[in-house]
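Incident review: delayed structure delivery

Summary: a single-chain prediction request sat in the queue longer than the usual turnaround. Root cause was a stuck worker, restarted by the on-call engineer. No data loss occurred. The affected request and its eventual output are reproduced below so the record is complete for anyone auditing the incident later.

Affected input:
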Amino acid sequence: MQVLFRTRYSRCTEFFKPVAGKALVFTTEAFKFRAFNIQAYKTLVTAVGFTLLAGCGVLSDRSADYVSAPEGKTIALPAGADESRFRQIMPVRDINLANAGKLFPDGIPTPPDMTSEILDQNYAVEELDGRAWLLVNDVPGRLWPAVTAYMSDRRLGVAFDSPQLGLQQSELVNFSLRARELVQLEGEASASEPAVLIQVRIAPGVRRKSTEIQVRSRVVVDQPEALLSWDTTFAPDSADLALQKRVLADMGEFLKAGEENKSFSRAASGMTSKPVVKLTSANDQASVIDMQLDYGRAWAEVSRALSESDTTIIDLNRSAGWFQVDHRSADERESDWFSWFSDNEAPRHTHTVNVTRGEQKVQVSAETANTYSGEQTPSTLLNRLFDYLY
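Output delivered after worker restart:
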C-alpha cells in the first residue's frame, strides 16, 4: 500500500513525511505554505487590476497645459550674424499677448496655412525673356479677393473684371495721386497727357498649388466701356518691364502683409486651373512630359528642375533643344572600391534630356547615352524631373 501510494502520487510527496516503521504521516506545514503563496498571488493580481482600471483618474490630463505655459526667452543670434540667413524651421503664428490669457482648448487660433513654406521664395518676382510675374504659392481663388483689395488700397480701383479669364482692369490712373505715384506719372493730371490704366492677370502657375500674377500698363484714348483683352504677343520695352516689376514687388509686399486675412472667391473658383505640366506614360513607364508653355519658359523650367534635383548638367544647347546630364545614382558613383581613397569621380554623360517644340505645347523626353549601361532608365529620369517641375 505504501509503495503504491508513492508511485501514483509521487508529485505530492512533499506534503508527506516518512517515519521509520510507520505509515506516512501527512504534514500540514508545507500545505499551509503553498496555500499562503496562492492567496498572496490572488491579492497581488487584484490590486494590479484595480490600479489599471483607475489609471485614468490617477494620471492627469496634460493635453491643454501648453495654453498656460510660460513664454520662453527669445533666442539671440551671435554678434555679427546675418539674420537673413536664419529662419524658423516651423513658423509659429504670432499671438497678441493682451489676449493670451483668454486662450482655452476650444479657442486656440487656427494653424496658419503652411503651404507658403513649400517654395523657397514666396511672393518672388521672376523674369524671363522680357516678361515678369509674381510667383505666389497659393491657389488663384484665394488670391483673387486679395488682388482686388490691393487695387482698392492703391486707389487703382476695378472698373471691369472676369474671374473666369483671371483679368482685372483698373480705372484710369490719371486722376488718383497715389495711383500716379505707383506708375510714376509726373506732374498733375491734364487733358494733354495720355490716359493710362492697369491690367492684372491671375493664372495658375507651373508648379503645383501656385499662382502667377502679371501686370501691364496700357495707354488708351479714353476710359474703356468694357474689359480689354489680354495681348499675349505684347513685348514690353525696358521702361514697361521696370514698371511691371515695381508694381509686382509692391503687390507682393501687400499680399504678404495680409496672409492671415485670406478669403476665398467662389466666382474665381471657376477659373481655368488645368495643370500646364503633364506626365504621359506608356506601358507603366514615363515616356514624355507635356508642357503647355512657350519654348523659352519651358526651357527655363526644365533647367531649374534639373538644378534643384541635383542632376548634373554636363552640356546644353538651347537652339538644338537638349541637355546632356549625369543621372547616375549615388551607389553607381561610389561602386569602385578605390573611390574611397580618391577624389569624387568627374561627372559623365549618361542621359540626354530633349526639349522639343510642338503645336501649342513643348514636349520633354529623355534617352540613354550610348556609353552608359547602368540601372537608371529614361523613365526614372522623367519621373524625377516631373517631381521638380510640378
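Verification: The two ends are 93 Å apart (CA to CA).
Action items: add queue-age alerting; document worker restart procedure.
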